[in-house]
């Protein structure tokens, strides 16, 4: 007798978050990226809806490499020309008190230049210093008003200022928790209590690179997704995974050939797609290219 | 846990009066308060004061479905009253209830199929209330067999072991709890399990405490649904916490609030 495939029925789906606003929506982006909307576990195409492919954001910084003559905007333009990412993730690292201490005004001005020269939907990430992020992110939110960016990261000790800024200027938010499903859920509740709709929150579950705790991230993401599909709207957010940042910090990626680092980043990314990642923030053009191919093949 | 709010019942004085005077506002208020407190569905029972339950149930259905699209449980021991309610219902419906008696099953199972409702099956028959787990299981098997032969989806069947008041039938409590678990393994797919909670504390002095202690224990024995007073906040808190302990919800500091948002 032929075996029948048992198909799971779920009652809820992952919320759909939109990033970017085109001219007709009051922004200046070339398109709108939609993430989420899954009605089943990752890549079980026969079991439920999987309407939006995972997308790749190219990570660029507010500082250019020291041997680049033209400043961060032209460096970002060069990167984006090479890697064909779906969106751009600007990390305002130079605002960190120990790494340049750029002022909110400087960052806002830089962002203005970015928005003028680069038309991809944007993710804007602070420097990781809570006090400083509370100054630079509101300034950047305001400059990027109407552009429907994704702003991060809100953490449980520091989410109010960022949430208020995102709320005022029409952006969505990244809620970051330290590989902890309980905190992820709590943070989503706290942020939505401030009035930001759950479909404007993306969870950063915090990941480890291949060989460095990737499986912990995987199990947290799986647990959240199972609960989300079973009806828990407070964890039904798309995931953003900072793949480049994690992959390029491990010794295997740095010590071997460049090719080995690229593979490390690409494999970390593909494993996270299987875990349910919706947005992959990546660094190397070649790794981005390979992972894009992988996504297109899976979703074709 | 699927919570059916029990408060729209003509045996309560205010509801009985409202049915008699056809005062919609009291019914609407009661419906919305129960939903706000966590009810997933609402029970509608005309109660003993109703002289014409066939008309009154229609009035109740129409009144309540004007303010909510939650499922409604048509609660009557008379199949004609239930059928009357089904004729006007637009929301999802639950038939409350059939017994294991053939003359009831013959009418109510086809009705449940026709109107695509869920069906509550009491493990009771004209011979009386069961006294042991074995009797409960036998009656449950009768209902399950009738439903599956009639093509009614077993997942939509809610089996009730019949709770007796703890001050009357203390010796049966363990049997009742174990019956809930055994109902779940009676067939594959499993039927759902259900209790009318308030009965357990009937005639006692600490009703709320007994109710919430029973429901947490029943949850551990795989109870799926209950008809209860959703306005009893301590009861709902205990229920939510029981589900947390059973890993049906992800813990977070605001888990009570998170559950109520669903």
What does this structure look like?
The complex is a heterodimer of chains A (300) and B (262). Chain A has 300 residues and is α/β, with parallel strands linked by helices. Chain A has a single domain (17-35, 43-298), classed as TIM Barrel (Alpha-Beta Barrel). Helix content of chain A is 40%, strand content 15%. Chain A has 10 helices and 10 strands. Chain A has helices at 72-83, 104-117, 130-143, 160-169, 181-193, 214-229, 243-247, 251-255, 258-275, 285-298, and strands at 17-19, 33-35, 55-61, 87-91, 122-125, 150-154, 172-176, 201-204, 239-242, 277-282. Chain A has an 8-stranded parallel beta sheet. A two-stranded antiparallel sheet of chain A has the order 1-2. In chain A, α2 packs across α3 (130-143) and α6 packs parallel to α9. Chain A is globular and about 70 Å long. Chain B is 46% helix and 14% strand. Chain B has a single domain (2-232), classed as Alpha-Beta Barrel (TIM Barrel). The longest helix of chain B has 17 residues, at 133-149. In chain B, α8 (207-220) runs parallel beside α9. Chain B contains 10 helices and 8 strands. With 262 residues, chain B is an alpha/beta fold. Chain B has helices at residues 13-21, 24-36, 53-65, 79-88, 102-114, 133-149, 173-184, 207-220, 233-245, 255-260; strands spanning 2-5, 41-44, 72-75, 93-98, 118-122, 157-160, 192-196, 225-228. The mean pLDDT of chain B is 96. The A-B interface holds A 181-183, 185-186, 189-190, 223-224, 227, 231-235 and B 249-254, 257-258, 261-262.
Query: Could you give the distance between the termini of chain A?
Result: 31 Å
Query: With helices defined by DSSP (H or I, 4 residues minimum), what is the helix count of chain A?
Result: 10
What is the spatial order of strands in the main beta sheet of chain B?
1-2-3-4-5-6-7-8
CATH architecture of chain A: Alpha-Beta Barrel
Query: What is the total number of structural domains of chain A?
Result: 1
- Please identify which CATH superfamily of chain B we are dealing with: Dihydropteroate synthase-like
Number of strands of chain B: 8
From the 3D structure, determine the CATH topology of chain B: TIM Barrel
Succession of helices and strands of chain B: EHHEHEHEHEHEHEHEHH
Oligomeric state = heterodimer
- Work out the helix count of chain B: 10
Number of domains of chain B: 1
Largest interface: A-B, 15 and 10 residues
Average pLDDT of chain B, to the nearest integer? 96
Envelope shape of chain A: globular
